[in-house]
Write a structure and sequence with these properties.
This protein has helices at 162-170, 181-195; strands at 12-17, 24-27, 37-38, 57-61, 67-70, 84-90, 93-98, 104-110, 118-119, 133-140, 142-143, 148-149, 176-178, 213-214, 219-222, 224-228, 240-243, 246-257, 260-265, 270-272, 277-281, 295-297, 308-310, 313-314, 321-323, 327-330, 333-336, 353-358, 364-365, 368-369, 381-383, 396-399, 403-404, 407-408, 423-425, 436-437, 439-442. The chain has 445 residues and is mainly β. The strands form nine sheets. A six-stranded antiparallel sheet has the order 5-4-6-10-37-13. Strands 14-21-17-18-19-16 form a six-stranded antiparallel sheet, with no helix packed on it. Mean pLDDT is 96; it is low at 1-6.
């Protein structure tokens, strides 16, 4: 917990004080700025040329962990025909500081191993050697009844519990799993230092503002659903909706009459009834493949209805929840393991170890994250009152008694509750809903 000792020329950092979610840049980050784009608009981002951000890139990864091609090289594909589509993240060292009252928080990273800095266990192999790079799925995981995949042009696999997701990831081969708390820690550090904010939705809102609406007309054998002019504004071209027991992509929105408009969808014709509700589902993987800036959204970063990508990682919040592995929670006490081979559910004995802090026992916006000096690479909400949508961590926390498994990010209808720091510790690992999915992760053993 002690103050860092590195000189300003050696690290990138950010410092947060009090309730203000916007921080002060430190070290090499001082004076830099970061921006995000929309669609094919390319914006200036000073971090694009700074390590490690400059070396974060998409690639095709074989099932045995070999890079087959990087994005932009011959042979690279996003559709899975040349391997899993992953984001390569190079090794870096971290330092975190939190005052005893939680009011001062610092995030720092460096390419070099400085005094008081540490490397995430995610970059450490079983034999203790350090890895130069690790891989996180570019997309929410899709899949079949046996395996998960990370590829464009398909829908994420949902309604799977954490154990099923883990087993289907492991079925790919050695080193494969679903995203864990160590992945999240790495992403958190990269994001908050780059954008100097804890209010992640203020950078890219994500798909978070959907509300189900009801049809105003009954029709037979059609590929559209008619809504009032006011209600149809909930829907946007490209999103996924659930109609006739299947995912449907919204192809267009057309005028019906002066009072009504219709969403036109793909797939087989269906019948509609007055009052029929049309719910949302996860966007198709790869919706942001044509975003040209290092980070950004399609159509809008601010309307709450479109997906985004952070340096190749699509939809880190909103859309659907992501199961997080490596953590088991029992009555607000979190236990962690660091070796992915040990990940299991409802495990509260070795090799799982209990953290030094206890999670918050009430729902609310997170004001403070726990800090364990022996395990600085994990943080979960410990104070969930006093925060808000634009203060402290700006994201919501959900809890429950008993044995729980965490998920992160929020879902398509949770609005300002979503974000990089939105943690749900409410459900057991066995929960399986259309709002839950996972993300692939690969680490050589």
């Amino acid at each position: 917990k002690g103050e860092g000792t590195a000189g300003n020329e050696e690290f990138f950092g950010v410092r947060f004080e009090g309730s203000n979610p916007n921080g002060t840049r430190l070290g090499l980050a001082s004076g830099l700025s970061a921006s995000v784009g929309v669609d094919d608009k390319v914006v200036m981002n000073d971090f694009d040329s700074k390590f490690p951000w400059s070396h974060i890139r998409r690639c095709n990864l074989s099932d045995d962990g070999q890079v087959l091609a990087y994005e932009g090289e011959p042979g690279y594909t996003a559709d899975g025909s040349n391997g899993q589509v992953m984001v390569e993240i190079p090794k870096f060292y971290q330092y975190r500081y939190q005052s005893d009252d939680g009011e001062i928080r610092e995030y720092r990273l460096s390419q070099n191993k400085l005094k008081n800095y540490w490397v995430s266990p995610r970059f450490i192999k079983q034999d203790g050697t350090e890895l130069d790079r690790i891989y996180i799925g570019a997309y929410k995981a899709s899949g079949d009844s046996t395996k998960l995949y990370s590829k464009s042009g398909v829908y994420p696999q949902v309604s799977i519990n954490r154990q099923v997701a883990r087993n289907r990831a492991r079925a790919i081969g050695d080193g494969w799993g679903i995203g864990d708390y160590l992945d999240r820690n790495i992403i958190e550090s990269l994001f908050v230092i780059e954008f100097a904010t804890l209010n992640t939705q203020n950078i890219m809102q994500g798909q978070v503002n959907f509300a189900q609406k009801n049809a105003t007309m009954a029709e037979t054998a059609v590929n559209r659903v008619v809504f009032s002019n006011a209600d149809v504004t909930q829907y946007v071209v490209g999103q996924t909706v659930w109609i006739a027991n299947s995912n449907r992509k919204v192809l267009s929105i057309e005028m019906v009459d002066s009072n009504n408009k219709a969403i036109v969808v793909d797939g087989a014709p269906f019948d509609t009834t007055v009052g029929m509700g049309v719910d949302c589902r996860a966007w198709m993987c790869g919706s942001c493949d044509n975003v040209k800036s290092s980070s950004g959204s399609i159509v809008s970063n601010t309307d709450g209805k479109h997906p985004f990508t952070y340096r190749g990682l699509e939809n880190l919040w909103g859309d659907i929840w992501e199961w997080i592995d490596g953590v088991c929670i029992q009555d607000f006490a979190a236990y962690i393991a660091t070796n992915p081979n040990d990940y299991a559910d409802d495990k509260f004995v070795e090799p799982y170890k209990k953290l030094a802090f206890t999670n918050a026992e009430a729902n609310g916006y997170t004001k403070r994250m726990g800090f364990d000096a022996e395990n600085p690479y994990v943080s979960l909400p410990t104070v969930s009152s006093g925060g808000g949508t634009t203060t402290y961590f700006c994201d919501h926390y959900w809890q429950n008694t008993g044995n729980r498994a965490p998920s992160v990010g929020g879902r398509w209808s949770y609005g300002t509750q979503c974000g990089l720091f939105a943690w749900s510790c409410y459900y057991a690992w066995s929960a399986a809903y259309a709002t839950f999915g996972a993300r692939l992760s690969y680490k050589p053993l």
